[in-house]
Amino acid sequence: FEFSSQRMGCVNKITELKLNSELTEEMGKLISDLWKNEQTIQKIYSLKSNYYLDDSVSYLLDNVDRITNSLYIPTKEDIVRAHTTNVITEAKIKMKNGNYLITDIGIQVGKIKKWIKGFQDIEALIFVVAISEYDQKLDGNNYLENAIDFLSDIVDSDLFLRRQITLFLNKSDIFKEKLESRQGDLRDTFPEYTGGYD
Question: What is the mean pLDDT of the chain?
Answer without folding.
Answer: 79
